[in-house]
Specification:
alpha+beta, 9 helices, 9 strands, elongated
C-alpha cells in the first residue's frame, strides 16, 4: 500500500507503507523532505484522522480537514491520484515488470509528473515542482534513465573472478541514500540495492546474443522470485 500526497496542480509525492498504521511516518517524511503544507485534506480513514498522525499534525501546526464521507470527488487531489494510477499501470504493462514493483513505479511516476509541465491554468507555464518549491527544479536525476531500463551497475560483493559490473533493472532515484544521482536497482534475485555507479547497456551489449540470453535468464529468475501478485509485500532494500 502507499500514502499519496497530491495537489490540484499535479504535484505529488508517494510513500509506500507495509501497514496502514505507518501513515504517520509518511507524513513525517513529507514534512522532512518537502515541508509542512498549509493544510492536509483527507477522507475519513481512521489512520489519517486519529492517533499518531493527528498528533504529528497538531505538533506541526498543520490543520487537518476532512471531506464528506463517500464523496471522493470533493477532494480535488483525487484527480491527480487517479492520473498517477493510470500512468503507473501503463508503465508496468509496457515494461513487463513484475506487478509487485508497482510501488516503486508509483514513486517514480510522482516525480516525473511533478517535474512535467501540464495544461493547468494555475501553473502559469511552470512545472508543479517549480510552483510547489518556488524555484526551478533539477531534473537530471530522473531524466537520464527510464522505468525498468536495463543497466550495468557496480556490485562490490561479486566474487573474483566474476565481473564487478553486473546486470540490473532501474527502479528510480534513491531516497536519502548516497549522492544525488544514486539509483534503486533490482537484481535478478529480487534484491533492491542503491548504487551511484551504473550505466546504460552499450549498443554492442544490446545486440550480443550471449547478453540477450543473460537478460532472458534475468527476467525469468526475477519473475520466479517475485511472482505477479501486486498485493505482495514491498521488496526490502539491501
Amino acid at each position: 500500500m502507499s500514502q499519496v500526497f497530491a495537489t490540484p496542480f499535479a504535484w505529488s509525492r508517494n510513500y509506500p507503507m507495509a501497514r496502514r498504521s505507518q501513515a504517520h511516518e509518511a507524513v513525517g517524511a513529507l514534512f522532512n523532505r518537502v515541508g509542512v503544507p498549509l493544510a492536509i485534506i483527507s477522507d475519513n480513514a481512521k489512520e489519517e484522522v486519529l492517533g499518531k498522525l493527528k498528533q504529528k499534525l497538531v505538533d506541526a501546526h498543520c490543520p487537518l480537514r476532512q471531506t464528506e464521507p463517500y464523496s471522493p470527488w470533493s477532494n480535488s487531489a483525487e484527480l491527480e491520484i487517479r492520473e498517477l494510477k493510470k500512468a503507473t499501470g501503463r508503465r508496468l504493462l509496457k515494461s513487463g515488470a513484475p506487478k509487485r514493483l508497482w510501488d516503486y513505479c508509483l514513486e517514480l511516476e510522482s516525480l516525473i509528473r511533478s517535474h512535467t509541465a501540464h495544461d493547468i491554468f494555475k501553473l502559469n507555464g511552470r512545472t508543479p515542482e517549480a510552483m510547489m518549491m518556488g524555484e526551478t527544479p533539477d531534473i537530471s536525476y530522473i531524466c537520464e534513465f527510464g522505468w525498468y531500463d536495463w543497466v550495468m551497475f557496480l556490485d562490490e560483493v561479486a566474487p573474483y573472478p566474476e565481473p564487478k559490473l553486473v546486470l540490473g533493472r532501474y527502479l528510480g532515484p534513491s531516497v536519502d541514500v548516497g549522492p544525488a544521482m544514486s539509483a534503486r536497482i533490482i537484481k535478478a534475485n529480487g534484491q533492491v540495492v542503491d548504487r551511484s555507479t551504473f550505466r546504460h547497456l552499450t549498443a554492442d551489449q544490446l545486440q550480443d546474443e550471449v547478453h540477450k540470453a543473460t537478460r532472458d535468464d534475468f527476467t525469468k529468475l526475477l519473475h520466479e522470485m517475485l511472482g505477479d501478485d501486486p498485493s505482495g509485500s514491498r521488496i526490502d532494500h539491501a
